[in-house]
Amino acid sequence: MTFRPMILTAALAACFAAAPAMAADNPDAARLSQRLTALDADSTLNTFAAYERLQARQAVSTLDQAAKRDRPGALYVAERRVAIAESAARTQAMQRQVDQLDRERAELLVEASQRDAARTRAENERLRLQAQMQAEEAERLRVQSEADAASLQDVETALKGVAGAQAARLNAARDRQAKLAREEAELVTGGKLPTAKRDSRGEVFALDKASFGSGKDSLGSSAQTTVKTVAAYAQASSSPGVKVEVTAADAKLAQRRAEAVRDALVAGGWPQGQVQVTGKAGKADRTELVVQSK
Length: 294
Known about the structure:
Oligomer: single chain
Strand order of the largest sheet: 1-2-5-3-4
Order of helices and strands: HHHHHEEHEHEE
């Protein structure tokens, strides 16, 4: 507890103890004092608006002690102070409930995303094992059919059809896993993944050219958030490693930029030992993060 809330609590306690002493000939002061007493007794509100309740107590006390000619003005102030204290307590209580609900909603979204990603990874692994078994069975059938040249072509055609269907299912599962991993990463970091493309290296994310200032080797705040989101995505998709490839007019500048991206990945929770950095000279500035696939 800080010093100021201790003072407010002590002052409220003193005002509350003085409430029974309200003069019998001032029913307005007694009525307002009763409203404050009810507010203090309400367990859902009495921890809020301590300062406003203190001001209201002081205003009611001033009303009780005011001369008859001063009472209209004192009554107006006291009524406003009491109303403000009641409204502030309710508002602060509702705001706390809203904040709690927002936190619980965010936690539920992340938890649901993680569960979906786990289920998709399990399905992906099941399909991979199934494809492996299909491949082994195909090899067995191929060896068995070598003695029968006439039926070999039919067997090969059938096996290709099975392998193609299985590959399509496996690719669909991988795409679903990547989508869920992207959603999880963006939920956790609050950032946005850039558009990605796939090639022989893996899934490639290109940073915007404005990520580094002209001739600079430090990432802007927006780019740092983007890199941390890529780190979260690599973790969610169980990537075996991330490559950072940077091209700039000067090779040394390109290397420093690559190392800056690596540091942002590590800050986002990605293991430093699983990052490869490459900086080289080139005509166009380019910064790419390659999230490798299994």
